[in-house]
């Protein structure tokens, strides 16, 4: 009896610590993402291709010394963050729910919070990669000047708040898809529509007023506007709807979306498809 008890105690292993579980899950998420060629191309390379094409084709000045590429760089960085967070989260989570991955994970000893930590780390890594590559191309090939001084702080908080808001919204949107096969068809048109009405591909002032109003309800418009304040001279603020960059309002809207997105996640997130009961 004593020998058996001692042997059982010797072979029993303590559960790993929470930080260890988080690191392990984050590593899994990163490996899974970068091993999926389609995800890497669509999420990481599409914004790069758009910047290259639009930067080469639409090479004209919006104002004295201000090129459209400067304007577009701000918008495409915002769109890249949207793709890495909202689109990526909504499609990947819906797919994992549909193929039973979420149900299997929910039945393991792994804390459920580790799943979301892994997703957040993945979004952070992909977002940083997108920003670095886009800035490199913009500077090397199109002569865009990098932010300086306090502009970097503005760039950082707009990117952080925007990525957080879009990640939470993407997790919530994953529950709208009936299954993994329909996720892309559900989310991609929504994301593309936001890009067209939020001042990514066109100057925001050229978009019809009612579309501007719709865009103002979502994070992408405010991210793009925040980034424009970094890449464009202050004189270009006169072209914005309020004749200013509205950085205070940008922070409030993105912060509000973080709170709203979290509440939506708590209310709607499911570990298995609706068809599974």
Automatic annotation (TrEMBL):
GO biological process: response to antibiotic
Principal subcellular localisation of the protein: membrane
Any one annotated GO CC term: ATP-binding cassette (ABC) transporter complex
Residue intervals passing through the bilayer: 40-58, 70-95, 116-142, 154-173, 185-204, 251-271
PANTHER family: ABC-TYPE MULTIDRUG TRANSPORT SYSTEM, PERMEASE COMPONENT (PTHR43229:SF6), NODULATION PROTEIN J (PTHR43229)
The family this protein is said to belong to: Belongs to the ABC-2 integral membrane protein family.
UniProt name for this protein: Transport permease protein
Species of origin: Blastococcus tunisiensis
